[in-house]
């Protein structure tokens, strides 16, 4: 996997750029800007570059060795500097996200913005949505991100303990994260059920992908929504579900799931995986200088992916919310081009008349 694919030799542009986050968007931007000749520093809180490609997406989709080879090419051929286990965050603010346990150094966002000619924020979505139901904090209730991330850590030898195991695992959701979690759960030998509040026709992962899982042995349960996690002595023992029916379309254009009163039932399970979406994780809590995040925690940018601070740009899932690797990669390239244009203009010498 080549991130610096647009050039054979480094160009002659001048200027220093910081990329915060080494996931798909960040690495795409790094490759473009390093090829142009800029000095590029990359700050990444995890031990390796790649983001979700390295630490969440199954290796049969994107093999870690390919990501590592691409990063080594950036480092060795284009002189990109990587600062791993380093989290960038706004001064006086704090927040703990998935992956932060590896952080050995915190660099203040204020200092990064001051030091470099331009900055691209590409910190992705390293937090997960919850259901907001009773019992959600019970043992053996994980998000899909937690489950997949900790499996990858174990497989890479970064932790000694496997993630919690179960004999009957329920995955809540029907997006790609749910699919990946269900497939990994199936590999452990567990009975796996996917529970979704709409039908297979509305599943974000697509009918074909869900049917592939069903052929592998995953049960797909439609039109059910969790109302409670049943626990004994702190451990999950069951998942209470309410049956749903489809109503009028919502803002997404899909039929709205409508609860059927009195239809609750309990599904026995010893491990619940919540795959109901990830949340953007910008390098600040709500606001930094004039840069703000919306209610969904997405960084506000203009059509040039520029924030309210002229020299600070943002790209990838931290702008769009959870998306596909290709979309994040493409937006990283766009941000890099806009940064190049911005620096080419702003760093031109001004001559007195």
UniProtKB/TrEMBL annotation:
Gene3D superfamilies listed in its UniProt record: FAD/NAD(P)-binding domain
GO terms of molecular function: oxidoreductase activity
InterPro entries noted in UniProt: FAD/NAD-bd_sf, FAD/NAD-binding_dom
Pfam families the UniProt entry points to: Pyr_redox_2 (PF07992)
Source domain of life: Archaea
NCBIfam families: PRK12770.1
Official protein name in the record: Glutamate synthase
Native source species: Ignisphaera aggregans
């Amino acid at each position: 996997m080549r991130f610096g694919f647009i050039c054979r030799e480094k160009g002659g542009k001048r200027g220093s750029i910081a990329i915060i986050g080494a996931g798909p968007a960040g690495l795409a931007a790094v490759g473009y800007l390093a090829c142009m000749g800029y000095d590029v520093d990359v700050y990444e809180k995890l031990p390796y570059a790649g983001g979700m490609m390295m630490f969440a997406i199954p290796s049969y989709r994107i093999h870690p060795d390919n990501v590592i080879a691409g990063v080594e090419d950036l480092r060795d051929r284009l002189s990109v500097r990587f600062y791993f286990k380093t989290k960038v965050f706004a001064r006086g603010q704090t927040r703990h996200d998935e992956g932060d346990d590896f952080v050995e150094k915190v660099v203040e966002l204020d200092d990064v913005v001051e030091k470099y000619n331009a900055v691209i924020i590409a910190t992705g979505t390293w937090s997960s949505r919850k259901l907001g139901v009773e019992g959600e904090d019970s043992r053996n209730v994980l998000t899909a991100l937690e489950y997949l991330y900790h499996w990858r850590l174990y497989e890479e030898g970064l932790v000694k303990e496997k993630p919690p195991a179960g004999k009957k695992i329920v995955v809540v959701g029907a997006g790609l994260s749910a699919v990946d979690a269900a497939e990994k759960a199936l590999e452990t030998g567990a009975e796996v059920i996917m529970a979704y509040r709409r039908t297979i026709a509305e599943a974000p992962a697509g009918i074909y992908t869900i049917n592939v899982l069903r052929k592998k042995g995953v049960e797909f349960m439609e039109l059910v929504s969790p109302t409670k996690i049943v626990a004994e002595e702190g451990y999950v023992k069951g998942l209470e579900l309410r049956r749903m029916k489809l109503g009028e379309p919502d803002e997404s254009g899909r039929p709205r799931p409508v609860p059927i009163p009195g239809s609750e039932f309990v599904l026995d399970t010893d491990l619940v995986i919540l795959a109901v979406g990830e949340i953007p994780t910008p390098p600040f809590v709500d606001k930094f200088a004039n840069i703000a995040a919306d209610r969904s925690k997405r960084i506000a940018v203009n059509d040039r992916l520029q924030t309210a601070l002229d020299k600070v740009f943002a790209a990838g899932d931290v702008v769009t919310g959870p998306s596909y690797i290709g979309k994040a990669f493409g937006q990283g390239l766009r941000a890099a081009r806009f940064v190049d244009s911005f620096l080419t203009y702003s760093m031109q010498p001004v001559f007195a008349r």
